[in-house]
Structures are given as C-alpha cells and as structure tokens.
Amino acid sequence: MSFKFCIKFFLVTVLLTMVSCASRKDIVYLQNVETVGNQSDALNYEPKLQNDDLLSIIVSADQPELTIPFNMPQIQGNYQINENQDGIKTYLIDAYGFIEFPVVGKIKLAGLSRSEAVTKLQTAVKEYITNPTINLRILNYKVSVLGEVLKPGTIKINSERITLLEAISQAGDLTIYGKRDNILVVRESNGKMTYNRVDITKADFINSPFYYLSQNDVVMVEPNKTRVNSSAVGPNVTTVISALSLLGTILIILTR
C-alpha cells in the first residue's frame, strides 16, 4: 500500500467524519443530558384548568345518600364520553372560567391546578357534607402535533400529563427533515396565546415550562432547509444533488 494511497484514504475518512459529526449535532435529542440534574419537580407537575375544559366531578362521603344532589346523572339521552364513561354528568368551564355545580352554584376553577380545584370544591361542599371526597378529571385533555412528523394529528391523553417528547413519540417521531432546535409550542395562558420556541437537542429544555405540555397545546415542527428547497424542485432532487456533490469531492481527492 503506497504512502499516496494512505494519504487519500485518510483525507476521505476525515471528510466523512466531519459530515457525520455535523449531522449528529442537528439530529440527536437531549445532547449532554448527563449535565442536567435529576428533576424532582417533574413528579409534582399538575396541569392548570382552562376555559373549555370538560370535567368529571364526583363527590363521595361516609353517607352516600348525602352526595346524591352533587352527583346528578346526565339528563338528556345516552351521553357518552368513551366506552368506560356512560351517562356521567360533566361540567364545561365557560368563557369566564366558571362551572355551574349542583347545590353550590357558580364556582371559578380556571387557572387552578387540579389539587387546588379539588380543595376549592371540598371547601364549598363541606357546608353541606362532612368530610367530602372529590374526584376530578379532565375528560378532553388533548394536544396537537403538526408539521414534520410521521403521524401529525391530535393526541388524546388519559393521564392528564404528557411531555413534549412523549407527544412527538406518539406522532411517530420527527422526520429527518424536521428542525429539532426550533420547535414551536403554541399555548394559551391566562386568556392569551403565547408562541414559544424549544430546542430538544439541548438537554436543559427539561427545565423549561414546555417539557410538560398543557391541554390544547399545539406543537409545530418546522421543516429544515433541505425540505423547503425540495418542495420547489421535487422531493428527491436536493438529496441526490447533495450525494453527488459529496461523491464528486471524494473522487477529486482520490484522483489527485
């Protein structure tokens, strides 16, 4: 093996290494995650109740007959949320943040966490029942993921808690053309729409308010430059040109 060939082989190896390093920086999630400490606060995350949330609220107590006025059945028809919840009375938080709760009347829940809402309801019901227990669930908890993912659409959540990475996973993950360092999270906060950019290649986004998604959040994955260019000249032309350019560079090095 000649010295000249070894030099050429070395140059090609270096070139390919540089290409692979550049692509890793743009694609890999949670880089340097080992530098981020354990997130104990994540275990205590609770969503804030919002306008248009649909709630299931069930009151229980040592004397079940006293809870009947608070657990009224759905009046009309065979109301159905899902196959496990037939005929359950539900409460829609109105545009002003209130629900109309039996016996108690209007009570504002929007802006409260789930535990805060439970405490507020318990305080109101205690005027009529001793030591009531409140079971509260958000029935229409959902987020939407759009853009450069394999399965864009709306995701319904049963647990009332989902991370941005879990939502992306349920959408089939980002395509190779999705910009991982500039994901847009559209969120309604205190009646106003906010637009927030998230870089999921950086592990410190775990500490951001957008690691956990709120109900009705919209996640939008922007296409990278390759995808934008290919939309004008065809889906595969840009990739082919890039491959030919790299191949040409390698051939020039080898034939010198």
UniProtKB/TrEMBL annotation:
Entries under Pfam families matching the protein: Poly_export (PF02563), SLBB_2 (PF22461)
Start and end residues of each Polysaccharide export protein N-terminal domain: 44-138
Signal sequence annotation: 1-24
Keyword annotations of the record: Cell outer membrane, Ion transport, Lipoprotein, Membrane, Palmitate, Polysaccharide transport, Porin, Signal, Sugar transport, Transmembrane, Transmembrane beta strand, Transmembrane helix, Transport
Superkingdom per UniProt: Bacteria
Chief site of localization: membrane
Membrane topology summary: Multi-pass membrane protein
Residues covered by the SLBB domain: 142-221
InterPro entries: Poly_export, Poly_export_N, SLBB_dom
Record-annotated membrane-spanning stretches: 233-254
Protein's cellular compartments: Cell outer membrane
Protein family: Belongs to the BexD/CtrA/VexA family.
Identification of the protein by name: Polysaccharide biosynthesis/export family protein
